[in-house]
Structure formats: structure tokens, C-alpha cells
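Hi V.,

You were right to ask for the full record rather than a summary. Here it is.
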Amino acid sequence: MSVHFGTLDTYKDLGLQLVDEDLGFPSLQRATVEVMGRDGDIDLTGMIDTNPHFGNRTAKWKFAMIHGQTPYWYTVVTELMSRIHGRTLDIVTDSEPEFTMQGCVQVKSFDKFQSPGYVEIEADCQPYRIFDKGSESDDWKWSPFNFISGQTFYRNWSGEEAGVTYEGELKNLGSKTEHMLITTTQDVSFTIDGESWNLAAGGRHSALYISPGVTPFTYSFRTTPGTLTFSYQMEVL
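Predicted structure:
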């Protein structure tokens, strides 16, 4: 079992054997008011937004150094400190390879006096994990990952003829409503959830959202066949 911190593979690159893993749970953000003379607090959490919101999650890993030589221990720790300590990285574990976590990584402890030696690593991660595997079709693709826009799931929908109405399905396998970016190469009309929109060639629409599950839609290129693209993230707790 291995953990990938950015480009570092803990087992293949350093020979570290994962012996314990705790991916943690995000804390629930709450707002309460204590009123003197009243039993219980007043919960204001849902007054502005009824959807729950969360704080970060703390993920922890413990690795055994399967090579016993003291020089090797120092090499491993030096490599960890230079490549991941204090850095914000994308994190993928062999136990959940379909998810990517984002967080600031720290080397918390190093014990060379046991046999084998142990290294403990901790990461302060965003509450949602990004679902980045499990596509049932090669038509669904992922954009390159970055920490500004995240990793975006996108699908290109083409039309061979203008004036023909085509049907499609948008899949959100995550656990939250996601913001969508829609672009087109030609003038297009599309309908999602009973609402119709027109988008000019080269245009962008960024005011729509996709709920968890499958959302059917229709589209039609008005004068010239083109490509309609939907882009969004999929995140799960």
C-alpha cells in the first residue's frame, strides 16, 4: 500500500510500507448563541444557508521503513522534508484511488530507534475529496489538475447536423451541487431542467448548477454543427 503526495510515491520512491491510515472526517461548521437564563443554545447554523458546510479534515499516515540501515533512514527523511513537508499537494491513496484530496502536508515524527523505523505524516485537507476516476465512458475526461480551478470533469457533445435536437445526460457522481461552465464552438440552444438557453459561438455560460445524480438535457446547433462542452467538479465528503 502506498500514498501519493504530489509526484512522490511513498512505496516505489522511498520503500515506505503503509501500516496505518486515518483519512479523518471534516468538522461541521456551526453557529450557536448562548443566552443567559435559557436552557440550551440557539442554533443559527441554517439561517443563511440550509445546506451544511464543513471545516477541514485531518488525514494521518504511519509508514514503516522496510530497510534497516541508519543512512537509509536519514535519506528518506531528507527526501520527505524537501519534497512534501509544508507543501500543499494533491494526495491519492491506494485504499481510495478514485479520490483526490488536497491539503498541506507535514512530516510529524520520525522514530529511528525502533525496528523497523517509523515515519508519521499528517495533512490538513479540504473537506471534500475530488472524484476523479470511475467514468463509464471514454467520452468523459479530466482537465489537468491545479489548485486554482481544481480538477474539472468535462464532456464534449457534438452535433453532425444543424437544426436537429440531440439528447444527452450530465452525470454528477459527487455529493454536492456543483457549478458548471458551458462553452460552445457554434450557436447553440440547450434545455436543462425545463429551462432553455441560447449561447453564441465562442460563448461561455457560468450561471448554471448541476445536482448530484443524472440530469438529462437537449441541445441543437442553430445554423452550423459544432461542439458543446460542460465542465464541472465532482466532490464527495
